[in-house]
Amino acid sequence: MAEEPRGSWFGFGFCGFGQALGSGRGRQVHSPEPLRTPGAGADVRRVSASWSYTAVVTRGGQVQLSGAADGAAGGCRDAWASEALLVVLRAGRGLGPGPELQAWAPGSALRGEPLWTHTLVPEAEGADGAGGEAQAGALPLLPGARAYVSPRPPFYRPLAPELRARRLELGAEHALLLDEAGQVFSWGQGRHGQLGHGTLEAQPEPRLLEALQGLPMAEVAAGGWHSVCVSETGDIYIWGWNESGQLALPTRSLSEDGKTVAREGEASGLNEGGPEVRRTAGGEEGAPAPFIALQPFPALLDLPGGADAVKASCGSRHTAVVTRTGELYTWGWGKYGQLGHKGTTSLDRPRRVEYFVDKQLQVRAVSCGLWNTYVCAVERGES
Predict the structure, then answer these.
(1) pLDDT (tens digit, 9 = 90+) per residue, 182-230?
(2) One Pfam match, by short name (predicted)?
(3) SS (H, E, C) 68-94
(4) CB under 8 Å, gap of 24 or more: what pairs does 215-220 form?
(5) CATH of region 3-7+162-260+288-383, choose from 2.130.10.30, 3.30.360.10, 3.40.50.620, 3.40.50.300
């Protein structure tokens, strides 16, 4: 898998199931706190968080679960958490030719037998990179970049040979793929504009984002129903659903202090009891509402001060971006503290997380769960 940078990890946001997120006290952490790692001095390689549990992978090959799902296992190269499925990439258990992909029920505590396994043969890992080295990618993209994992059957989904994937991200209903040339492809449901093709239609197969052709991208991120990509020059492009300001565009739900009214047939999100149906209220006396609910085309977003971005991650309805100078900006839905700003719930514009500035820390990576955020940072000046 692609190596996450070394550093100390911090967490903030929803921890109602006891996720290893900062102190873990109460239902939420509103300001970044050092991550409670599995074992003293554990060197965390990757954090993958779903709604109710978190998977932490160490460089020693240990995966540790916390929250509604718990348990641990060794010999792991990578792990990817979703509510429906926990996927781990482990060293082969037998005399097979390659590592084994395992799909587990999150509540299994990684005990017994997995729901499904697939051995990755050397050909699947590929020798297509420079110098004949196998391509690397984090789950749900598989080593070799020729297939990916889905939380719904079929779990193993091959990619067309012409798609030379570098990164793949899954949202609630859609997928984004970044290829070796920096082009972006999307597919899946498009009813919230999250595919970026200018329509609300579904796309069953990967389709090139024509609006971004000629603009090589370095990063992609998929939220619940929105999408983000970062260009090689540090520009941010964002599109999809803006219900909570996750596109950094004006939204009625924030202007009305988050008041919503239920309507059948509208977008659903997760809540503690299951699906939640929400829709913002209409304008008074039929007047046009001064907000943007959907943005079906990629739109350029400027960070304060013209900062360049290098990394991005999306939660269900919030967005986080790391700048070239190691600062973290967040915006969108923040009810549980997932934005990292004390005294703030939701934002429809990027705001710098001052904790890392005050602590003289340089952010190197960010990984959003549905309702929380994990950050890797080092002391400024540290190589």
Answers:
(1) 999 999 999 999 999 999 999 999 999 999 999 999 999 999 999 999 9
(2) RCC1
(3) CCCEEECCEEEEEECCCCEEEEECCCC
(4) 215/182, 216/181, 216/182, 216/183, 217/178, 217/182, 217/183, 217/184, 218/178, 218/182, 218/310, 219/167, 219/178, 219/309, 219/310, 219/311, 219/312, 220/167, 220/169, 220/176, 220/177, 220/178, 220/184, 220/312
(5) 2.130.10.30
